[in-house]
Amino acid sequence: MIFPRFKKRWQEPCGYAEVLRIAFPLILSTGSWGLQQFIDRMFLTWYSPEAIAASMPAGMVNWTLVSLFLGTAGYVNTFVAQYYGAGRFQRIGSAVWQGIYLAVFVIPIVLIIYPFIHPFFGFIGHAPEVQRLEVVYSRILLLGMPLVVISSAASGFFTGRGQTLVVMWVNIGATSVNVVLDYLFIFGKFGLPELGIRGAGWATVASALITCLLFFALMIRPVYNRKYHTLKAWRFEGELFKRLLYFGLPNGIQFMLEVLAFTIFIILVGKIGIVELAASNIAFNINSLAFLPMFGMSIAVSTLVGQRLGENRPAQAERSTWSAFHISFTFFGLLALGYFFIPGLFLLPFGWQIDPAQFAPIRHTTVVLLRFVAVYSLFDAMNIIFSVAIKGAGDTRFVAKTTISLSWFVMLSPSFVTLFLLNGGLYWLWTFVTAYILGLGVIFLWRFLKGKWREMRVIEQ
């Protein structure tokens, strides 16, 4: 009974095959981001405990700063998908350019924030050596912020139309460069100076530059310019830009405040100790190997929902979403079993080049944290798929309000109270993270089932 139903769902429109055709290159693409982070932090773990302890707080601060613009520019994907589904191809180039113009606002923000990085980490008060490395790493990553925003908008030209193989090859190529440069710069190989965490930062910026140049050069090719006006429509359009902000800015705000919440969470963990901070960094890093590939699936869901709604076929959009959820839930379920029963397998790369006695307390703590990851992974599948499905229609304000409310009132506020008033430990803080993700999954499933998103559109009617 199961196999014929699976075969039918595989072959039919909006079934597993159609979803994977769009999603699989994106899964490999965003999975390469996870691999990049994994290897980057693995190298830093080999380099020193202080380097790995500093990498995630500094990286999270950087993502908090860029995520407002990144989330807004990334919403270009939905505009492109709905214009494409509606057959209004000449509007696609205009939508992409409005996202690119967001990068202009990033440059003055980088210049303003740069001098305040040092006093900010001084205020946080991590161990002196960790604090010094946090400042160095964060300042280097800031320089790549405009490049990341441009890449996010330009890649939406390809993902929104379902041309995901281009995105895959660009990101895999840039990731390969990053990994090679990481090894050379961090450890000072082949006559290069040993830069440590500074080397990791410069490798990331170089990778961002390559990604930006490739996406932009491919987008403005004559074959695309003729059909989609990718170069002809370079001018600023106030009305379209305002519509991008109306729908995309809540997405950017949600992204920024969610990243900020996790940044504060990591900072709170750092108040407990270096072992707890390093273990949390490693646990989140291992989890990113699952989350980032599914981020590729989420882009595919947003694309499919946008295209079907552009065609005025909401029933097909709903079926695509459920097909994606079945795949994602299976993937997360298998990983959850691995996290729970064989956590040591995921920790092997981190212990290769480090003193076993030094790594032992970090390893013990990380094993426990991976059990938390195993529990919340299943609800993360619901969170990822159903939130992007309703965002792909334009329901960005509900997603933003829900995410912000739960992150601050379910995860952060109890963490502050437990840590500073009740002297609670690391595992209490991770309990609140698990409750937060569980709540997101349930609420977004409920919103999806209510069906308000079926009537929403972001493009002109």
Record the SSE blueprint.
Layout: H1 2-11, H2 16-47, H3 49-74, H4 76-85, H5 92-113, H6 117-124, H7 128-142, H8 145-159, H9 164-187, H10 197-219, H11 222-228, H12 238-272, H13 274-310, H14 314-341, H15 343-347, H16 356-391, H17 396-421, H18 426-450
Helix pairs in contact: 2-3, 2-9, 2-13, 2-14, 3-5, 3-7, 3-8, 3-12, 3-13, 4-5, 4-8, 4-13, 5-8, 6-7, 7-10, 8-10, 9-10, 12-13, 12-17, 13-14, 13-16, 14-16, 16-18, 17-18
Core attributes:
globular; 0% strand; mainly alpha; 461 residues; single chain; 18 helices
What do you see in this structure?
The chain has about 450 residues and is an all-alpha fold. It has one domain. It is built from 18 helices and no strands. The protein is globular and about 60 Å long. The relative contact order is 0.13. The mean pLDDT is about 85.
Number of strands: 0
**Overall pLDDT metric:** 85
Class from helix and strand fractions: mainly alpha
Please tell me how large the radius of gyration is.
22 Å
**Uncertain spans, ≥5 residues at pLDDT below 50?**
none
Q: Name the beta content range.
A: under 5%
Give the % helix.
Answer: over 70%
Coarse shape: globular
Biggest beta sheet attributes: none
The number of distinct structural domains comes to: 1
